Fold this sequence. Notes:
This protein is of the alpha+beta class and about 375 residues long.
Amino acid sequence: MSEFDATRQRRSHHPAAPLSRRHMPVGFDISLRNYTQGRSVRIPADHGPAQSLRGFDPDYRNIVDYIVRITHRIWETDAREVAYIGACYAPDSRVFDDYGLQLGSAKIIADTRHTTGAFPDIVLDAEEVIWAGDDEVGFHTSHLTRILGTNDGPSRYGPATGAKIDMPVIANCVALENDIFLEHVLYNTSAMLKQLGLDLWAEAERLAADPPPGWPRSPEVWDELRRAAAPEWPLSLAEPVEGFDPDAFARQVHDSIWNGDGSALEADYAPDFPFEGTTERKFAGQAAYVDYVDALRTAFPDLAHQVDEVYWMGNDAEGFLISTRWSAEGSHAGGGLYREPTGAPCQIWGITQWRVEGGQIAQEWQLFNEFDLMMQIARARRGAD
């Protein structure tokens, strides 16, 4: 425990307050690209411009500095202070991950020690931090990280394989007074298992029979996952503005692509935009994106997608970075991507980050709970056997 943590009074911050339009940064003074000086350094000597961080450890200069340096301190320094999680995650933290709801900082510490044991050389390299909020309502951060490491230790997935992993992870957190108390994180488990050389369906079937903590989600947990930190009304309706509105844009594009006719793809995406997603999906351009969407919608013909939370930073001149957390329900009634249909009702949720320039999406990163989805299907198939 740090000296700072030992002297402060901790309180519960639940439930997380939703953001208003005034909480969205209108520039990039405090941003990862400035912090890392265009990726030329990972952690700068001066830690960036000062920002009001009431209740945070005074060692941190701003919210980007906080997110990047606590990650580095916990996962990568020579000392590897895994126990420091107890100082920056609330004792009553609620973490929605690939498997379900994990409760409390002690569970996060145990899971982190498991992972660092399996990947002793692990590196978590920040690729983007989209943030909004302040030290009154809470800082909301969407942290895109590249995880690199070598599987030199045993894990819950079996003995060490010696395989290397390289995959994106996205964690959307809410923090107040040095405590992350709410998190939606997608670890891209399917990509990791694939890179370890494991058969995804065999693992899905094994874990569906002997599930990890938090799985399967109850209806109550699923409802909380979707509504946590979400505004009562979309900001585009509650606080309408003229001109380009990131909230309206995100909601309209997602609705068009996942619920509608997909016309937003040609209108709102740059022709050759790069995409990186779940289970090593990586492609460029609108045609490849159409194929990706069609495969998912074929597997779930009645897919009903909703946007749960949107926040952003930027302006018309410099462009925008937008984080969208979304969820969907659908029946596994189609074949193809997930084998023969089971008819099972399934839960899908994801986080999308966009770089928007000139009113068009110039780049997309998107993760969803694909391995969990395969476990849901495997469980339904077991029940049918």
